TrEMBL record:
The lineage of its organism: Eukaryota, Viridiplantae, Streptophyta, Embryophyta, Tracheophyta. It comes from the Eukaryota. This is threonine synthase. It comes from Papaver somniferum (Opium poppy). Transmembrane segments: none annotated. It catalyses: O-phospho-L-homoserine + H2O = L-threonine + phosphate.
Amino acid sequence: MAACSLFQASSPCTLNPRTSKSFLRNPRTQSLSIRSCSSSSATPSITSISSESSSNCHSKHRRPADENIRDEAKRTHITDNNHGFSAKYVPFNADPSSTESYSLDEIIYRSKSGGLLDVQHDMEALKKFDGKYWKNLFDSRIGKTTWPYGSGVWSKKEWVLPEIDSDHIVSAFEGNSNLFWAERYGKTILGMNDLWVKHCGISHTGSFKDLGMTVLVSQVNRLRKLGKPVVGVGCASTGDTSAALSAYCAAAGIPAIVFLPANKISMAQLVQPIANGAKVISLDTDFDGCMQLIREVTAELPIYLANSLNSLRLEGQKTAAIEILQQFDWEVPDWVIVPGGNLGNIYAFYKGFQMCKELGLVDRIPRMVCAQAANANPLYLHYKSGWDSEFKPVTAATTFASAIQIGDPVSIDRAVFALKNCDGIVEEASEEELMDAMSQADLTGMFICPHTGVALAALIKLRNSGVIQPNDRTVVVSTAHGLKFTQSKIDYHSKEIPDMASRFANPPIEVKADFGAVMDVLKKRVLSEYQ
Ligand SMILES: Cc1ncc(COP(=O)(O)O)c(C=O)c1O
Ligand SMILES: N[C@@H](CCOP(=O)(O)O)C(=O)O
């Protein structure tokens, strides 16, 4: 019964969610038909589902003039029933005997003991549906415009924020990002045949932060509608979190306040919150200093904290991991490499993979690698110490991977937990290694950010040491769009970086506007290379 109504089929429905073979046969068409046939019936029946291909159904593709996709979802009740799925905050990695928990409608970021929180789903309720059911449900929603499932995040709503009213969701239809087969890079640089880049930066504000921010800002929207005193949302940022927060808040009409380390983020990142109308506060400190200040401010004022200390963010970010499995038709890659800074994302990926395993969509999880810039490598140092000694924050030095210039990551405990539980590895990359890796990847047709360069440099090291094998299926997570970091590319290609050979620089050739001069250059620089 429950399985049917997730797709909004009306009763009577006698199908068992675990064995509903006929229902599961073709979820794509079922879902499509429910939407396109819905104007004639608020609760479409199995009969209406099976009549999807009829001409009657095909002719009803216009929605009423006064209706938008939110209204349509409401009218057809597509998203109303959450089947008793629920989620709450619990202390992160708590003792099983702990009874401490909080509603997601509470404004709370830390447990009683001061530790991190985690969003815990009612796994027993989710387990009432088998892995095949979830795969079919998620697959049925890809590429649609149905509110809110057109988003890669909200297509997994039951696993993200099951109880939120779809009407409160603030979404830019984020997610569903390209999983790019890095054919030439893999073959020519690494001798690999199954190398992929998950382009999370090809997104609304140009980074993976959109995945988490749609969840956080949607929940804030809900809290404000419930009358909770939230006057705005604030974050500290190395550029990408602030861009995402500002855009989603602007879309919802919610004030955003962003704390940025002065002169430490790219111009393209800085202009994003300015353009989106956020209150931009530029502080004479580094990211860790900004983070400390925003924590103090949000403890005093009714400003909601949007950094990944807030575990809601990770619920959205984990969907990128689920998406990778989905894009491989639910086959598990061998390796996933993630650049790490504040360290929320590495845990989010772990959580996404782990949920898919626990709910029977896959039978194992990949090994993960967290890649750090050597100039901001506290996790790497902790890993190298065998995880044994107490974690020691560092003062992060300047790095071209400026968005991960973080010395005191808030999610250190989450990252260690994730890496220990997936037999993970931490690698580091020097400035030259990360810039060379980025530039070499660009020369094969990508246009990646320096943080993705860190991840690729880690991959090169692990390939060279034989840890990653030539035919291991490997995914490098690209976290931001290269267009946000053009200055670093300009510096590299101008060969202006002190102590860096810039081996793959490709500076423009200045030539007199004269036929002979142009021909000489072409003979020397193009034809000679061809022969
Ligand atoms: C582009 C980019 N890559 C990687 C990261 C690292 O993510 P996390 O802080 O979750 O470790 C960040 C932010 O920190 C980022 O903005
Ligand atoms: N790279 C981040 C740093 C803050 O990370 P968060 O995930 O805790 O918000 C940024 O872009 O600000």
